[in-house]
Amino acid sequence: MLIVADENIPLLDAFFADMGDIRRVSGRHMSRKDVRDADVLLVRSVTRVDRDLLAGSRVKFVGTATIGTDHIDQQWLADNGIGFSAAPGCNANSVVEYVLAVLSLHAERCGFANGNELSVGVVGAGNVGSRLAEKLQRLGFKVLLCDPPRAEAEGDQGPEFVSLEQALQCDVVTLHTPLTDQGRHPTHHLIGEKQLAPLNAGQLLINSGRGEVIDTEALKARLKQDDAPLVALDVWENEPAIDPELVGLVWLATPHIAGYSLEGKVRGTEMIYQALSKHLGLPVRKKAGQFLPEPPLSKLTFTSTADEQKALRTALRVCYDPRADDVQLRLAMNGDAGERAEAFDGLRKNYPVRRECSSLKVQLKGAGRSMQESFKAVGFKLKL
Ligand SMILES: NC(=O)c1ccc[n+]([C@@H]2O[C@H](COP(=O)([O-])OP(=O)(O)OC[C@H]3O[C@@H](n4cnc5c(N)ncnc54)[C@H](O)[C@@H]3O)[C@@H](O)[C@H]2O)c1
Ligand SMILES: O=C(O)[C@H](O)[C@H](O)COP(=O)(O)O
């Protein structure tokens, strides 16, 4: 069996070598020729999987080690009897930690002793959005959920949902929808001129869903006005050829790495391994946990003199500080268009190992219940 795989999928050999031969190719530049003789195709989000790529090949199973599926023509796969699996939720926790880290920087920048005075509108309350909302609520933030497809499907049985207009009135608005252009609630350019107009300089807009959910031209125009909101973007229209002018206009700019914790990436590989095993009728023998190394920093101790909010911010930033990614992306915007696109992909390909908060045991000497609860809400393990 020949498995053609994006070279950026971690642990390919560990999970798949005993199932067949593996041919590693560039996900961004994968061609018909690369996949013609493949039985299985494993991709990440940068490969468009459709008729153009697969017609005439013998591929019988496609797995994407990602949450997003907008790069896959699932209808064409189904029509052609090709099995498919994504990795729902695989890196949701990583994205949540990215948002928490952005919020902590924002709270500090605004001079809030405690960021949880802010209201947060979560647009898209699926795996990422609902996990984020739960953590924020435990931390004391006021959270409003906007998810029209869920509101329609769940009615009175679900949580309370608000309209997009209401969500856009929150101090912070964070986007976690898939990219869709069909159906009753398409998200392509969901945020355009009309939605950006009422935002003010006191508000923060975060996008770690897909770049095309925001209209770049409308956002650039809004950001050039005096009362523009603060914006943090992890995802961009037209990746990897992103707009350098937009990078210059936003507060925090990262190269689509919100989901790039080691745990999230390895879980993505594990989930497509599980799906392929099921497709082939093979037993599932490997688990992500067996391949996760001991983190370089595994314990952190705060003494009884530590301030709760400062300690929480410190611990969060020990695990992840988006400012480092922001600096790298801004540096990558030098050069011509081709060099910039290559640099964007280079930052993602060579992304440093980032561990989730759950990899860190935190000791809180003499801490009260509220401080312990805050650390647990973020996801740290407490060392008693
Ligand atoms: N930046 C990153 O690294 C990164 C990582 C993971 C996922 N993502 C993106 O985030 C998206 C969300 O991830 P998820 O795991 O929560 O997906 P999910 O499918 O679990 O949830 C998406 C939610 O969005 C809702 N939704 C759909 N259309 C909507 C609309 N018009 N308005 C409001 N809500 C709408 C859906 O009903 C659903 O509840 C993914 O599709 C992916 O594109 C990005
Ligand atoms: O959809 C996802 O899971 C994320 O956007 C994912 O982190 C994208 O990473 P890529 O597949 O581009 O490496």
From TrEMBL:
Species per Swiss-Prot/TrEMBL record: Marinobacter persicus
Molecular function per GO: 4-phosphoerythronate dehydrogenase activity; NAD binding; protein dimerization activity
Pathway(s) served: Cofactor biosynthesis; pyridoxine 5'-phosphate biosynthesis; pyridoxine 5'-phosphate from D-erythrose 4-phosphate: step 2/5
CDD domains linked to this entry: ErythrP_dh (cd12158)
Keyword Phosphoprotein on entry: no
Role of this protein: Catalyzes the oxidation of erythronate-4-phosphate to 3-hydroxy-2-oxo-4-phosphonooxybutanoate.
Subcellular location, record wording: Cytoplasm
The organism's taxonomic lineage, starting at the top: Bacteria, Pseudomonadati, Pseudomonadota, Gammaproteobacteria, Pseudomonadales
Domain Erythronate-4-phosphate dehydrogenase dimerisation: 291-379
An annotated GO BP: pyridoxine biosynthetic process
Annotated keywords: Cytoplasm, NAD, Oxidoreductase, Pyridoxine biosynthesis
Keyword flag Oxidoreductase: yes
The protein's name: Erythronate-4-phosphate dehydrogenase
Residue span(s) of domain D-isomer specific 2-hydroxyacid dehydrogenase catalytic: 32-279
Subunit organization: Homodimer.
GO terms under cellular component: cytosol
Positions of the D-isomer specific 2-hydroxyacid dehydrogenase NAD-binding domain: 118-258
Pfam families in alphabetical order: 2-Hacid_dh, 2-Hacid_dh_C, DUF3410
Catalytic site: 210, 239, 256
Gene: pdxB
Gene3D superfamilies, A to Z: 3.30.1370.170, NAD(P)-binding Rossmann-like Domain
Stored PANTHER family: FORMATE DEHYDROGENASE 1
Binding annotation for substrate: 45, 66, 260
Family membership: Belongs to the D-isomer specific 2-hydroxyacid dehydrogenase family. PdxB subfamily.
EC number: 1.1.1.290
